[in-house]
Amino acid sequence: MQHFNTIIGNNIQVAQTILESGEVIGIPTETVYGLAGNALNEDVALKIFSVKNRPHFDPLIVHTHSVSEIEKYVTEIPDKARLLMRSFMPGALTLLLKKKSLIPDIITSGLDTVAIRVPAHPLTLKLLKELPFPLAAPSANPFGYISPTTAAHVYNQLQGKIPYILDGGATTVGVESTIVGFEGDDIIVYRLGGLALEEIERVTGKIKVNINTASNPKTPGMLKSHYAPSVPLLFDDPELLGLAKTENKTIGTICFNTLVTGLNYSTQILLSPAGDLNEAAKNLFAAMRKLDTSGLDIIYAVKFPDEGLGKAINDRLKRASAK
Ligand code: TXA
Ligand code: MG
Questions:
Q1: Distance from Cα 137 to the centre of ligand 1, integer Å
Q2: Which of 47, 88, 136, 213 counts the highest number of beta carbons within 10 A?
Q3: Is the model's pLDDT at 103 over the cut of 50?
Q4: Span 243-249, average pLDDT
């Protein structure tokens, strides 16, 4: 693979020039940082897969700057999709829609639907408006690891592999977009994410959730083990926590707004002392990274309230704990 002197900057023109030359770069979104390239070019898509070390069966999300742009890449937009677009785009929502043939098959791993979204980040929206093509962008982490929420996270893991990282500050949502598809009259959620289920249901009424794991996953964010730190992570398992304590393991914790009792407080992280689940989601991945490099034996994560973004937080922690 080609070696680059990776630069972090906030120059949209530089980003545009590099993307138009067929290279891939890091870009900010409101959810997590993406590893972006020309979504209409098969060779660029291959580069994304290889930089990320991602299996080709795991399709990519296409990013555009507006709902009207989406029309260029899909054959039909169900009424319910239009309703969601009107309500939540730009935002942390990805829709699965029937693709036109100008989206290469490699982008969708051969599926006839394309995952598409309009990210709510000013810098990236501006960049998308300048570009003559949409951007395919998976989260900018090596496959299976924690998603990056700052430009520095991207740099730490992909330096040398990409020429540029567009720095748009720390992401404001902190977990990946919610992925939604349409079957007949049904709206189905395939990945819990930065747009809360309750928000969607407020405009659509009750919807279905299908986030079960499978060996050939429909959405591989659904892979059982994903978003994982290198240090073993225990999720909501007081018994194993007790065992780890008796074995004198060094333990760090990920908590909501109260510490776990009986443990050294210096390695415990409160994601939101104020008890705000949106703030907790925003801080989740940075906390996982911090604890992963703190020389611990074990990371222990508590279960978050099962509502709002707490659902996405619990989903990520569960996958992070899976082996
Ligand atoms: O917030 C996000 O969605 C971030 C930012 C960068 O936009 N992107 C992101 O991409 O999380 P990635 O590649 O890490 O996760 C995309 C998920 C994968 O689980 C993939 O399987 C699913 O989207 N996906 C993509 N295309 C699909 C399709 N046609 N049908 C079903 N699932 C699809
Ligand atoms: Mg990802």
A1: 8
A2: 136
A3: yes
A4: 94
- Which domains, from first to last, does the chain contain? 7-209 (3.90.870.10), 233-321 (3.40.50.11030)
How far apart (Å, rounded) are the C-alpha atoms in residues 85 and 94? 10
Choose one of 111, 179, 180 to mutate for the ligand 1 pocket test, by most ligand atoms within 8 angstroms of C-beta.
179
- Picking from 139, 146, 103, 101, the residue whose alpha carbon sits closest to that of residue 119 is 139
In a mutational test of the pocket of ligand 1, which residue from 211, 216, 219 has the highest number of ligand atoms less than 8 Å from its CB? Answer: 219
What local confidence, expressed as pLDDT, does residue 215 receive? Answer: 42
Residue 11's Cβ-side half-sphere holds a number of Cα atoms within 13 Å equal to 8
What is the model's pTM?
0.96
CB 199 within 8 A of CB 92: no
